[in-house]
Automatic annotation (TrEMBL):
This is Sugar transporter ERD6-like 16 isoform X3. GO terms for molecular function: transmembrane transporter activity. The gene is LOC107474330. It is a multi-pass membrane protein. InterPro entries: MFS_dom, MFS_sugar_transport-like, MFS_trans_sf, MFS_Trehalose_Transporter. Residues 1-106 form the Major facilitator superfamily (MFS) profile domain. GO terms for cellular component: membrane. Keywords: Membrane, Sugar transport, Transmembrane, Transmembrane helix, Transport.
């Protein structure tokens, strides 16, 4: 059986890499900085809350509790739109998001 800590660490690593790239690709220019800042702020708040919760419960319970957000994010992956760069790379230039890609390249 795969350790919950290993899954949690892998999920955090993937999210830390993918989310800023997705924000840059999908957000309009005037919102990119604010969204990237909010992303970093939420990461710090999440680490702080985990520290506080970890002082009350055991590390095993904390590791299992950390799987809940990972599962929610995994389910949420089915509902996020494709990024403009992905649409462009897969020859779907007629999609609505193509105008955002052209804006991002400027």
């Amino acid at each position: 059986m795969v350790s919950p800590l290993l899954l949690k660490g892998y999920g955090i690593g993937v999210i830390s890499y993918v989310v800023p790239i997705y924000i840059v690709e999908i957000a309009p220019k005037n919102l990119r900085g604010g969204l990237a800042t909010t992303n970093q702020l939420m990461i710090v708040i999440g680490a702080s809350v985990s520290f506080l919760i970890g002082s009350v419960i055991t590390w095993r319970q904390l590791a299992l509790a950390g799987l809940v957000p990972c599962i929610c994010l995994l389910i949420g992956l089915w509902f996020i739109p494709e990024s403009p760069r992905w649409l462009y790379g897969n020859k779907r230039k007629n999609q609505k998001l193509d105008s955002w890609l052209l804006e991002a390249e400027v």
